[in-house]
Amino acid sequence: MPSVAADPFHDVVGHRAVKRLLTRQLASGRLAHAYLLVGEPSLGKMTVARALSSALLPEAPLERHPDYWEDDHPGQIKVDEIRLIPQDRGPERHEQTLQAFLATKPRVGAYRVAVVGTVGRLPDAYQNLLLKTLEEPHPNRVIVLTTPSLSPFVVLPTVVSRCQRLSFHPVPLPEIVAWLRRRGVPEDRAQALAALSRGRPGWALRAARDEQVMERGRYWERRLEEVFGAPEDVPLALAAELDGARSEWRAVRRSGAASDPRPQENGEIATDPGGPEDPVQLALGCWQLLLRRKMLSDPGSPEGARWARLLELSYDTVGYLEQNVSPRLALECFLLACRNAS
After folding, report:
1. Whether 68 and 140 share a structural domain
2. Which of 32, 50, 80, 120 could form a disulfide with 154 if both were Cys (CB 3.0 to 4.6 A apart)?
3. Which helix H or strand E contains 312, and what residues bound it?
């Protein structure tokens, strides 16, 4: 039974229910053989997965522990990282494939732990390989998967059914502010980042190191203001611009860097490798803050109700993006609704 003398989740902000459950399971030794951590990116799923892994493997840091396997890099996972006997050159990123790792007894500790971030990076055929491992678990093996969505287009229902699901929700803003302050972020900036984070502490911490993030936020707010009551081509052009920025961001990220659109002196957008945020998600977060301010400035009035409907539609748009709906189509529908509401 793993020792839990110290709180393994002391550095995890929010998610009290998840932390209580895992702490009880660690104390009792009655662990699930597989967990599926569900929630949008940057809520802390991988932080919890690594904290759980560290509690099960206290003998050495995870990066040097022979009984720990992790894959969380951007881009699709190749099949030879998963199946027991690779057919090509073998795994490129790991000493062993996932199935070979789990088939081998622990070398040092009592467990072998494997973590796969964003399991939807596995095509369905490869998820079926993973399913066989989940259906026939070895003793003292723990698999932790993460996913932003339970959509069958993202993760197979059969994989979901073999795991204990743990749901992650946005963290209350005061907790994010306090967490950032403990990391040396000034109060005013911590407040602004927490508001912009939409409850995602991972994003807030990355953005704290990005001096331009607030400037980009103001840029996207101005662009939405231009949409209200504008001709139809204005929201359609903004949707196309954002969709193009997102495509470029994803391409740079897949190549091993990150990208984020950054306003230049003339107000246009340029891609700057190193930015922490999907530009579509950043823009939607900024627009939600703007719409909320407008709604609260005139509560109870028809105008306030109109802003409330647009705010609700913005959250629906975030959900559509998680369901693999075309980003450009989702943005066009939202922005046309904003244009028509004024």
Report:
1. yes
2. 120
3. helix 302-322
Per-residue pLDDT, 22: 97
Q: How confident is the model at residue 256 (pLDDT cuts 50, 70, 90)?
A: low
Q: What is the C-alpha to C-alpha distance for residues 132 and 159, in angstroms, rounded to an integer?
A: 9
Secondary element (H or E) of residue 36: strand 34-38
Domain of residue 276, residue span: 210-340
Burial 84-96 (b: 16+ CB within 10 A, else e): eebeeeebeebeb
Cα dihedral across residues 144, 45, 285, 319: positive or negative? positive
Q: In angstroms, rounded to a whole number, what is the distance separating the alpha carbons of residues 108 and 126? A: 29
Among 167, 188, 219, the domain-final residue is: 167
pTM (two decimals): 0.76
In contact, 282 and 217? CB cutoff 8 Å: yes
Q: Do the beta carbons of residue 224 and residue 336 sit within 8 Å?
A: no
Cα distance between residue 98 and residue 138, in whole Å: 13
DSSP annotation of 12: -
At position 216, the amino acid (one-letter code) is R
Mean pLDDT of the chain: 86
How far is 141 from 3, CA to CA, in rounded Å? Answer: 17
208-235 average pLDDT score: 91
Same domain, residue pair 145 and 232? no
- Total domain count for the chain? 2
The whole-angstrom separation of Cα 253 and Cα 277 is 10
